[in-house]
Every structure is written in C-alpha cells, then in structure tokens.
Amino acid sequence: MAWCHSATRLLCSRLTISVIPPASFKFTTCRPIVTNVIRNKKHLFTNRVPLLQCCRLYQGDDATCLASDITKSSGLDTRKYLLSIGVNAGRIGQHSRSIFQQDEKEVQGIVSLLEKNGFTSDEIVALIEKNALLLMFDKHELQMRLSMFVGLGIKLPDIVKMSQLVLFSDLDIIVANIQLMQELLCASPKWISSLLKYKPQVFQNTCDFTHDEIRDNIIMIRKLLLHHGCVEVENVLRQIMRDDYRLFRTTQSQVRLVVDFLMEQGITGEDLVYVIKRSANIFQSTPEQLRQRMMNLQEKLEITESEVLKFVIRYPRALGMNSKNLDKHIKFFDDRVIDVTYIIDFPYVLWVSVKKLEKRYKEQEDLGLFPTSTMHQILANMHTSTKDFNRKMDNFRKKKKDSERDAESDKKKSSAKSRRKT
C-alpha cells in the first residue's frame, strides 16, 4: 500500500517518465485513484507499452480499452469547458498541460461535486486557479477531504485559500495530527482551521519523527513547563505549535541539553517559560553555539554579562541568530553612525533583513524624516509590518504635501499683501 501511495504521487506530478510497479503487485483500495490518474495523465507515457503494463495491473479493467480511451482525447474539450466556467488558463500555470489533457467528463464530475458541497461558481473558479491539481482527485477521496474540513468548522471560502500542502497531503496523517492537537493542546476547531490555512506544514510528518515520537515530545515539554510554574500550559503549547513547531520535532535529549544550559545562565521559572515560548528555534542549536552567541552579543553590543542575560530574556530570539547575521546588522548601524545600543531598545530590527532595513532607512531619509523625527521613531518604523510601514509613510507624505501647500499659500498671501502696500 505504501508503494501505491508513492506511485500515485509520482504519476500525479509533472514528470516525463513513468515508473511501473512489479507485475505481481495488486492494487486494492487505492486502485480507483490510480486508475483515474493514469486515465487522465496520458501525456506522461511516451509509448503504449508502459501504458499497457500499467493498465494490466488492474484486474477487471480491459487494458486495451483503457489504453485506447486514454489516447483518444486531445484535451481541447476540457480546455473549452474550463474556459466556459470562467477559469483563467494563465493562472493554472505549470499544471495547465496536465489539466487540459484530462477527460472532460471527469473534470465536470469534480466541478459538480464542488457545487453539491455548496461552493459558488466564483469559489470553484478560484479553487481551480489556486489548486488546479484538485481536478486530478478521485471524487470519493475529494468528498472525504471536504467533509473533514467542513466538520472542523472550516468555511468554504477558507478551503479555497488553503495550501496545496493540506489539500494534497495524506489524509490519515492530517487527521492524526488534528486529533493529537485536540487531545494534548485542547485546540478548538477554529484554532485548527486557522493553522490549516496559515501553517499547513505543521500537519506534515517528517521521516525523522514518527507520530508517537511527536506525541511523547509534546508530553515531555508540557511536564517541563508545568515544573517551572507555567499556568496556562495549553496556551503556551499552542503558541509554540503556531510559531515554531520544530520544538516538537526535536529529540528529547537535545531539549534537555538546551534547558540545562539556560538554567546554568540563571534563566529559570517564568523567564525560562518565556524563553521556551518565544524562541523555540534555539533548540536547534548546541549549548556551545548558544554560549558563543551570548559572548558575541556582549562584545558587539558593548554591554556587560548581566545586561546580555537581561537582553536574552527580553528577546530570546537573539540567541538563535548566528554571528554572520549579527555582524551584518552591526555594520548597518556603524555605516550610518547609529549607536549600536539602540538595538537593546529595538531588538526586533535584528530579525529584519539588512536589505529591508537599508530600503526603509533610505525611504525615510528621502522623505526628510531625520530632522523632525528621533532615532527611536526611525527605528520603530524599521520593524513594523509592510502594511503599517507603508501607511505611516503615506501619512507622512500627505502631511508633507499639506504643509508645502500651506507654506506656498502663505507665501502668495504675503506677496499680495506687500504689493497692495506698495
């Protein structure tokens, strides 16, 4: 069965080769899915021999009929149909060839299924344009996925926005991860729905960690948080899962090593809980690397050891920053004769790329903010979201334009008054 899943995904991808399983292999429950894929991916086969070999794997299917059926359609009818319902062929992108080679009836069946599930025509078009490979699905499996999402309370427009990572991943793995979150994180359907939309990779299992190992890691971290006085432990676990789920896919021995290092530095209790909650990325580093980074921070920021500790507790993500990136940010400050100690007040600039810092600094400089704004205001604008930064700059441009207009108006009035006196 595992071979069947991998073969299905291989056939679904835009490959120019075909991999044929051994003749002794028998498909069972996945046979309808693979049959549908082979029937609708005929352009992957360069000749009829491998095609017939694939067809003969299916007991009850006439290989010759299936092969001839696959080679009949030119895909023009499918293209016309998709265009007729409003699909923009250009937005399908790299999958357009695969989609247009599908049988028109199969595509119509998928569209009808979406309509029966309550999708509007506009939502169907948006879903196809965003995730065109959805048209490759077996209708039964697609219905199971839609039922699961709707059962979680996910609204149909939100399903349209979902990543391919969720829509095309192994359904059993997705369900198992959802059950795990409900059990150990007390996650609500609304929270899971949000995570499915914005952090779909959380629902993927890696080859390095099994589902049971992830469960054991969550339980171990939960006990660790409770031991150090964490009150709302489920909230903290959900925040870690949302912000940096890699902590749950780190070996328990590595987690203990990092926690022991932090405690040696005097970070305990609520401070330790905060560091774990706000900077799960540090658990990918060794204690030696973390120690070296603390020394770099002390040297580059020109502060004492106790001040470094306070800085790390306040902004733990700094411990996850390598020396190369830190040097780039320090150079940015030095080149503009800005005191590096401003980083202590605005540590979030460390997590903004130097390229973006340079762009935003120049934009503020060109607008003439420096004579009228303090360095605190300048740096505060550096790490805001793109939307907020653009809004602030637009407001400043408007004020500047109004000020120039008022100045010009006053100048004209003054000139007219002087002429009257003359």
Write up what this structure looks like.
- With 422 residues, the protein is mainly alpha-helical.
- Among the domains are: 2-168, no CATH class; 352-412.
- It has helices at residues 2-12, 31-40, 48-55, 63-72, 76-84, 89-92, 96-100, 104-116, 121-130, 139-151, 156-161, 164-167, 171-184, 189-198, 211-227, 233-244, 252-264, 269-278, 287-301, 305-314, 323-335, 342-345, 354-366, 375-382, 386-421.
- Helix 3 packs across helix 4 (63-72), helix 19 packs across helix 20 and helix 19 (287-301) packs parallel to helix 21 (323-335).
- It is flat and about 85 Å long.
- The termini are far apart.
- Residues 1-35 and 37-74 have low confidence and may be disordered.
Radius of gyration: 30 Å
The count of strands amounts to 0
Biggest beta sheet summary: none
Q: Detail the poorly predicted runs.
A: 1-35, 37-74
Based on secondary structure, the structural category is: mainly alpha
- How far apart are the termini? 99 Å
Beta percentage is under 5%
Secondary-structure element string: HHHHHHHHHHHHHHHHHHHHHHHHH
Outline: flat
Number of helices: 25
Helix content, binned percent = 55-70%
Task: Report the mean per-residue pLDDT as an integer.
Answer: 77
